[in-house]
């Protein structure tokens, strides 16, 4: 749930990560 909230906040405005960093983050979070 924390990841979902983070992604909602991220999508709302903070697009600081590159596509590659986002992929890496999602891969690490997808346990």
From TrEMBL:
Gene designation per UniProt: pvalb
> Which protein are we looking at?
Parvalbumin
